[in-house]
Prior knowledge:
Butyryl-CoA Dehydrogenase, subunit A, domain 3
Amino acid sequence: LLPLAVHIQMSRALMVISLLLGFFGIIMSVVGMKCTKVGEENPVTKSRIAVAGGVLFILSGLCSLAAVSLYATQVTYEFFRESTIRINARYEFGSSLFIGWGAASLSMLGGSLLCCSCPDKERRGQQYHQQSQPSMSREFV
């Protein structure tokens, strides 16, 4: 696998980095969810952890977008270079490039939605308290 072209090696490295960032983004997002009991009970801290997971998703999407675009650029360059094209040779973008662009877009969209879960300035420092439920028993006079 080492004698491959430089752009393929670079794309592979960017995709591995993207997978690692996405994995850690999933872990941080699950810890930062308000419905989980992992981590602290403070909602401000949990939302900051969720925002950090969103940033990791955005970075993961950018890495995969760079890898797919680098490969597509190389395919385009090889197509228009006259010395390497045979008469019957045809280059075209495969479906994996379009799936890669779609996955990168969805990853960045999901990360940006997670980043929107940052708490408001007036809510910072407040704790959420449960309201007491009204009693179901009634006194009869």
